[in-house]
Design a protein that fits this description.
single chain, 464 residues, Immunoglobulin-like, eight-stranded antiparallel beta sheet, five-stranded mixed beta sheet, 18% helix, binds zinc ion
């Protein structure tokens, strides 16, 4: 029925125009879809091709997009074949096509110029004829990886500890850092490490060899530009084994009664099957809540300052006895049976009840308040991914966002959270992973491992 109406209208039009030939010819000369290219100028490993097509009511009869380089033609998109969901209508007369365009999709792409060719046709004259447009877009393929070179020397990493690398990367805005096995540690411009006027290509990245990583875990510097081109560089380093202690923790009903109800009350979002089953609730807190808390802590690392806020060595809380060391392997016993195993990623420091807890160095408060197993807890950010954590506090004196100086009071020690008695649980974190504070407590280590490298990188004479 619709066809018939169209045909009648068409005949009327033809009659009005005074002959078939004229309208037929005019329909053939009607402009085709209007094609505008918005991306890309350059692609690398990755890239994206974006174009808009203006055509009445978004109607297209055909659309063919191909990529051409060095005489070869590769299909990018076709309206007649395969998945066409990438062609999206925006408004009444506009279509937008986005396509990945880089060496990851087109393995044969080479360094140099390339182009996109598009043909599009829209229906005219009630679908009896069509109007076509052909258009092209030139772009560059750039597959050259960033330039990367390590500048610092003498890298010694304690198992569970940290180190720093100073390196040059060009372009300076490439994403770069250090990779230790599966973990990536971001690099920051050297100006943030106090190297005033340093070349923008010079970067600083702190790294850690975590307690549960192999001593032989590969450590490399990497850089990735906005086109997805990636470079990596090796450098000389040595790793040193550390002795992690094994310890036995005896759990009692009295301990459960002390800690479990209080933790559940303060953590309303955390569910246990039966709150009256204290052993099961305790195990759930020690495993599941610990995991949730550690994920939250890891996410705080993204709020780190690109500038180093600390000055000189970190300070262990005065007059404290170390009750438990970093990465102690703890077996938990109840009624003579092993019921759990956890790694204790921090130091337990005890002095007197409600002892003042002081900032171990200058930093900004990124967490202040209840934090599950850690009870009342303060976390300070010291910049470039380095943070320190103070747990089980009885009271807190600082608020999030505060900038605190070395020795400024953060609160008082206590036994909130998963604590058997009044003590400070202290740890340091790099990019959200617990690292041993022992290195950072040593003035010698801070001087040899960190400050010396910054000084040498800042001196033009020391450049390689
Ligand atoms: Zn502890």
């Amino acid at each position: 029925m619709r066809k018939l109406t169209v045909l009648i209208v068409l005949i009327l039009l033809v009659v009005a125009a005074g002959g078939t030939g004229v309208v037929w010819d005019q329909a053939g000369r009607v402009a085709g879809p209007v094609i505008v290219f918005t991306e890309p100028a350059t692609v690398g490993r990755i890239g994206e091709f974006v174009m808009t097509i203006e055509t009445p009511r978004g109607e297209l009869n055909s659309l063919e997009v191909t990529l051409e380089q060095n005489g070869a033609t590769l299909p990018v998109f076709s309206l007649s074949g395969g998945d066409t969901s990438a062609l999206v209508r925006e408004g009444s007369d506009r279509l937008v096509l986005r396509q990945p365009l880089g060496k990851e999709r087109f393995e044969s792409l080479l360094q140099g110029p390339a182009s996109i060719a598009v043909t599009a046709a829209r229906p005219v004259l009630f679908g009896y004829r069509e109007a076509e447009t052909a258009a092209g877009h030139d772009f560059e393929v750039s597959l050259r990886p960033p330039l990367l070179g390590v500048q610092s020397q003498f890298h010694y990493v304690n198992h569970g500890g940290s180190e720093v690398v100073v390196y040059r990367v060009t372009p300076a805005d490439a994403v770069s850092g250090v990779r230790v096995g599966e973990h990536e540690y971001p690099g920051f411009p050297a100006a943030g490490a106090g190297m005033e006027g340093a070349d923008p290509s010079i970067h600083v990245a702190f790294l850690a060899l975590l307690w549960d990583q192999e001593l032989a875990t590969p450590i490399t510097v990497f850089a990735r530009d906005s086109l997805g081109n990636e470079a990596s560089a090796t450098f000389a380093y040595r790793t040193f084994a550390q002795q992690f202690r094994e310890s036995r923790i005896n759990l009692s009903d009295g301990f459960f009664a002390n800690v479990v109800p209080a933790i559940l009350q303060n953590s309303p979002d955390f569910r246990v099957d039966d709150p009256s089953d204290l052993l099961a609730s305790y195990l759930s807190i020690n495993r599941d809540m610990r995991r949730e808390n550690d994920a939250y802590i890891a996410a705080l690392s993204r709020e780190t300052s690109p500038e180093i806020l600390w000055q000189g060595p970190f300070k262990q809380l005065i007059n404290t006895a170390v009750e438990s060391g970093f990465a102690d392997q703890r077996d938990y016993y109840y009624d003579g049976e092993v019921v759990d195993h956890q790694t204790h990623l921090g130091f337990d420091l005890a002095s007197t009840v409600a002892a003042p807890v002081l900032a171990a160095n200058r930093g900004r408060v990124v967490h202040s308040g209840w934090l599950g197993i850690y009870g009342n807890c303060v976390i300070l950010d010291h910049g470039m991914g380095l943070q320190s954590l103070y747990a089980h506090l009885s009271s807190v004196d600082v608020g999030e966002g505060d900038l605190v100086e070395l020795d400024e009071q953060l609160g008082r020690s206590g036994a909130t959270g998963l604590a058997g008695g009044d003590h400070l649980h202290f740890t340091m974190l790099l990019n959200g992973n617990a690292i041993t504070p022992i290195d950072w407590w040593s003035a010698q280590w801070v001087e040899d491992r960190i400050l010396r490298k910054f000084r040498e990188a800042g001196e033009p004479a020391a450049a390689l």
